[in-house]
Amino acid sequence: MSASDRASAAASALSAESPKRVLVTFGRSFLSLSIARLLGSAGHEVHVADAVPFAVSRFSNRVVKMHRTPRPKYEPLEWAFAIAGIVRAQKIDLLVTVHEETDILAQVIMRYPDLFPDSCRLLLSDFELEHAMHNKYEYQRLLDSIGVPTLRYALVRSQDDLDALDFDFTFALKQVFSRGAQDIHKVRPDDKPRDLSFNPANPWIAQEWLSGDKYCSYSICYDGKVYADALYPVHYAIDGHSCLSYEQVEHEGIAEWIRQRVKELNFTGQVGFDFIDNPERGLFTIECNPRATSGVMLFEPEDRVDRAFFAENDEVIRPRPGVAKMLGPGMAMYGWRKSSLEGNTLRGFLRDFRRTDEVIVQRDDLGPAFGVPLAVGNILAQALRYRVNVPEAFMYENEWDGRPLPT
Hints:
By secondary structure, the chain is α/β, with parallel strands linked by helices. It has three domains: about 5-130, Rossmann fold; about 150-210; about 215-360, ATP-grasp fold, B domain (D-amino Acid Aminotransferase, Chain A, domain 1). About 35% of the residues lie in helices and about 20% in strands. The chain has 13 helices and 18 strands. The strands form five sheets. The chain has a five-stranded parallel sheet with strand order 3-2-1-4-5, sandwiched between helices. The longest helix has 20 residues, at about 365-385. It starts with a helix and ends in a 13-residue tail after the last helix. GO terms for molecular function: ATP binding; metal ion binding. InterPro entries: ATP-grasp, ATP-grasp_PylC-type, ATP_grasp_subdomain_1. Keywords: ATP-binding, Nucleotide-binding. It holds the Pfam family ATP-grasp_3.
């Protein structure tokens, strides 16, 4: 049974108005913590899973149990079977994958379609669609196929491909599987880089560089319908890409664009789009993340976004306009620098800092804040154990880079 068929089969038995059992993956992520808090605050029984024993979500009073699993990137089959075992043992009603383990799970399900019981709803689409939306080059081709305007782009597999590009404009160069604005090059046509490494399984995309207002979105969707969404401008960010603060804004053009694309693709899952709104050329999406994104942190318990996770609401649920959240440590370390580079005053930054809520620290759930040192120590131990760098241990253990499942 496909992911979409399974979602439909389970839908009649699920209701956000009665408590359900939910499993949230990758508990070390602040996004997972936010989702667990939102669902737990609505009365649902929330379980989290991770490969490390002291993931930050474990310390939340909204979480009833933490489950250890293998590492999804390096042991994808073992991880997926472990998740399915937890679902069956705990009688889980809804599985929420958070980051790129979504792609890994969709690929495993393609090989093992009966891995999960029909009683459990999976918040994801079939692998073919997940892959096409996640791969930055295939995503642009997907937009082309349904007649959506795109910025000019090309696939770059080698130095010869790069040298042969006939772009006479500045363009971005990034790998088709990358996360968090990793290793992006802003390239002038007369100054192409000569020191790139080329991986046949993860080539580069050259994409026209366009100026304009930047926005990031987050949506929860079932069967081509949007049930919740959030939108925030890219303001305080590391190198203009990785956001440190989030403020809900309204943009009807973007909301309509998302509604149309989700409907045309018949998408099920969480999804975020990165937009550029140019005053002369209009609205374009740069890339897509068919998974949870930071926008989920803008929702608050009173929004009852848990209803969207069960597709129970009629009107689209959005955070209240102007609500502002931040990753406090990141803002403290990088936000002031970004603000000063743009000519803003320190007073202006401090004003924004004071009016923005920290996403980790919550008065009625202080466990994660106190648990952060232990969680960080856990990540450092993981990095030493597997001889990887800290970002790899913290976030990229679930990164999917197009590799096929082991045979």
